[in-house]
User: What shape does this take?
Amino acid sequence: MSIFVTVGTTSFDELTETITSKPVQKVLQSQGYDKVTIQYGRGKHEVENIKSPSYSVVGFRYKDSIAEDIASADLVISHAGAGSCLEVLGANKPLLVVVNEMLMDNHQIELATQLYRDGHLFYCTCSTLLETLKSMDLSALKPLPSPKTNEFTENIVSYFKL
Amino acid sequence: MDIWLWALLSMLILLLWILMRRLTRNKQPTRILAIAGSGGHTTELMRLLSSLPTNLERHYVLANTDHFSKKKILELESKISTKSNHFTYVIPRSREVAQSWISTIFSTLFSLLYCIPVILKSKPDIILCNGPGTCVPICYTALLFKLFGICRGEIIFVESICRVTSMSLSGKLIYPFATKFFIQWPQLLENYPKAIYLNGRIC
Assistant: This one.
């Protein structure tokens, strides 16, 4: 099983460091994960690649599209960015959002919190990541309903007679 | 007697002119002015635009420092049509992230100067925006020109999906004047009853 970690367009060194820390890697391995891919953006340090037959870690800074990485993952661990959250949930993948405590007043966290309340994702900080990984039950997550784009189109088209 | 005749004649000419303008306007495609912001705003805006009919004449406003939006606009346009029938206007960014509020006031006033030619050139029937700072001076300029009958200037505002419990500043400033004001979470209805909630997110 594989995990994809994404920090978005900025950096979130605390998250990359926590993910690659010994205790977290141990837990991940014990849960059957054997491949971790990390998109670490503008992070200070490059992620050290690990290649062993039973466990691998691969890092990259940016890609034009991370859709494939999301699609091939069994679990996505992401920063609280709205774009990332919606892309992962739209691809119907289990999502664990790690909130950056340095950006607490950021409005993107409002969205992640609401999606957590509605049961679409799990939610933690770097300091609670280990505990959350141990305790969360991915089968409890509910899929995100599809967007009401058609209703929006109809509303506009009929009002403005387009 | 002469004065009355002249008055009547000029009234007739004015009426004829308005009628002619209406007739010629009807033949033109509906013009939509989409206001791009940074990052997430633009991604949402492009999704909204691509859900609308393709026969609209699309005009775009973007900030001079915004290369991401420029790329996204070209991507969308190449998807819609092979012949490029869109117009782009570049204006200075009204508010950088983390800019102080005092200097924001000045840079917003400054950007008003750039908004006037944008509205005069694009004469938008509809303005589509989803919250970047740039949309406030553009919308206000359009409202001013709407008073003089220069453009139809109807505003469609879509509040960002990130706004769950509180409205953005742009949203608050545009809410009283918008023709259609969409929100993506029902919690906002309490304080903004005129807003439209479609029982879920839009994009």
Observations:
- The longest helix of chain A spans residues 149-160.
